[in-house]
Amino acid sequence: MTAAQIGRYSGYIRPITYMIDLCIISVFAYFLLPENFFSIYFIAFILLSWIVIAINSGFYEVYRYTKVLSIFNKILKQFALFTILCFAFSGFYVKYSEAFPILNYTTASIITVSFFKLLVYYLLKKYRSFYGGNLRRVVIVGDGSSVNQLIEFFTENPDYGYKLVRVFSLEGDKRAKIQESLKFALDENVDEIYCSLHNLSNHQMNSFIDFSDNNLKILKFLPDDKEIFTRNLKLDYYDYIPIVSLRNIPLDNFINKLGKRIFDIVFSLIIILGLLSWLIPILALFIKKESKGPLFFTQKRNGLNYKEFNCYKFRSMRLNSIADLEQVSKNDPRVTNIGKFIRKTSIDELPQFFNVLIGNMSVVGPRPHMVSHTEMYARKVDKFMVRHFIKPGITGLAQTNGFRGEVENDKDIIYRVKYDIFYMENWSLLLDIKIIFLTLYNAIKGEEKAY
Which spans are transmembrane here (predicted)? Predict the structure, then answer.
């Protein structure tokens, strides 16, 4: 698991706080606003407005290192914009002129929401401080004043939930010290590595980057005072200490993750109910008539955070003992006649919409590999493991750019990884929709490597 998952409960807390907040503003609207003001249109308006404002103001982007002052700043932005939109609704829709009921409503709502927001924030701090829960194991590598400041920060702020396991000085044999720190991070199941850029060469910095990518570790840098970055990195502050994150993944954002999950559920239900409901019995007849065996082929694959799951497909081959070891190649004798058709048209992949509905896959994402191949590529291909920071998909950016099917040479898997990382770092719902349309177009047109 990555540090984003180990011991972090925000994945559960944020959806709950969203629902609580939306319930609060809806209930208060019913009890605090005049009867002629309250309507289904107003409820829809305030719920949508609240979410849009929250996304733009970062109202729910509160982390363990976020300052209380920053939280109050978010609250004030949310209150001001929400109040303005409520007044706008009153002017355009109900022609309501009295300001006091609206102001009374927005003030009561934001105070109540803020109370619960701060309550959760402080309860989590106490939970980390007194019970040692929700901890992240971290190491610091390097020297300089920023390292000493970060050590002091971790030591004096246990409520932030960071457990400093070890500090590695790079004085002396720097190369040996770096290797020692990386081995320690791997052996001791460290979640995050904080690396000082003080007197660190580009080559040495890249060794940390490659290690974190290939071993699913979170890497963050401590910049020097005059350090200038050419990469598009994310900057956070722990107290007043600048911390640079190596990679900003849009799907780490709860709103993006929720939007993608809703899209996955809706899209998979459409396919399952509208297509698979009548296609399954037809294919069952053809598949079982040509060869003995089950209708579905189940295979272990690696998904989010390298976790194994059962991936479903329509069986396109005769039963054989090497199905989990060897990919299908061109003119493979194991493939049945009906199997050739469903593989050529990608129909064999359709049962994976059940994986999407369950939640261990997405409609769009990096294609998952067989467990044996994942282990092989992880050792052979640089940054291959980065693909496991997000859910695997039925189709992906690499597949729509010609890198689907059998891996015939190193170029195939290297470029597949590059496209997957680009997708992960530049995700948007529009990009997903584009990939889906390209996949449908390629399936109708027919692809050279679809066999």
Answer: 12-33, 39-63, 75-96, 102-124, 265-287
